Amino acid sequence: MHAEEKLTYETWPAEPEKSTLEAKNKFLGFWLFLGGETVLFASLFATYLSLKDKVPNTSQPLAKDLFELPLTFVATMLLLTSSLTSVYAIYHMKNFAFKKMMVWLGLTALLGFGFLGLEVYEFNHYVHLGHKFTSSAFGSAFYTLVGFHGAHVAFGLAWCLSLMFRNAKRGLNLYNAPKFYVFSLYWHFIDVVWVFIFTVVYLMGMVG
Amino acid sequence: MANQQLNSGNPRVDLEYRRRKSAEEMRYQVISFALMIFLTLVAFAAVAAKGFTAWFTIPFIVLLAAVQVVFQLFYFMHMSHKGHEAPTLFLFSGLFVGLVMIWAFSTIIWW
């Protein structure tokens, strides 16, 4: 099998994400990248945990003054659901159902935009409460960690939309199937990081 | 290119088998999604309840997060499938370095 081959529902392989050499390399390389991302986010978590609530004076808000359950909960539900919709997209990719895959990818992107919109609102809200990037070590560590995650979501959205746009008229083949698969891995990884952010930053911040 | 799939010699049967397999896998994905939502609800409820001490709540919600991430990795990211030896190595080496880093940073600030 080679990348340009025209395939049908019957001849579509069981593992299109690994059926060419290029695809195999993408798969391996992407997981290596995710290993590196784990280290990156762990270092940001370590910094945040060390600098949490380290503020210069008592007029500055602490974690327990800032975070609220409902906002974090809605953001979490949006991102978790978008993880499921991208699983559906890959399910349809494996069944050679291009249109269905695109619909689920579109839903994934919508949920991602919802999440990002909430984060923009949230950051804006905190800045008005006096919690800024430059106001304290706590502020710098918070915005670096959560902002890095938000930037990953924004990058993922751009990635998803460009994949959808570029392949809109192409249909599925062994050249683009691994690209969709790798995107879904990235999207799940963003969700993995968020699970730790909502636990370590928000929930632990509210506990004290 | 050899596909890692069984061959009964009859392509229609093979195709039918694969469709069923992947439909079955999709059911497991939905179940793990439901479990993840449940774990999230429990974590938020534990914090909202305020009745527990921080010494209980913090380890408890971190444990819930770890379980939920296992679902993400092994089901949503297919790490339970064959051919994921290298990804497992990469991810766990990354995790190891990361945990050492968190340990180091949090001990440094104690002194």
From TrEMBL, chain A:
One of its GO terms (biological process) is aerobic electron transport chain. The keyword Membrane applies. This is Cytochrome (Ubi)quinol oxidase subunit III. Pfam families: COX3. Residues 1-206 form the Heme-copper oxidase subunit III family profile domain. The keyword Zinc-finger does not apply. It comes from the Bacteria. It is found in: Cell membrane. Belongs to the cytochrome c oxidase subunit 3 family. The chain crosses the membrane at residues 28-51, 71-91, 103-121, 141-165, 185-205. The lineage of its organism: Bacteria, Bacillati, Bacillota, Bacilli, Bacillales. Keywords: Cell membrane, Membrane, Transmembrane, Transmembrane helix. It is a multi-pass membrane protein.
From TrEMBL, chain B:
The chain crosses the membrane at residues 28-49, 55-77, 89-110. It comes from the Bacteria. InterPro entries: Cyt_c_oxidase_su4_bacillaceae, Cyt_c_oxidase_su4_prok. The keyword Membrane applies. One of its GO terms (cellular component) is plasma membrane. Keywords: Cell membrane, Membrane, Transmembrane, Transmembrane helix. Its main location: membrane. It is found in: Cell membrane. It is a multi-pass membrane protein. This is Cytochrome c oxidase subunit IVB. The gene is ctaF.
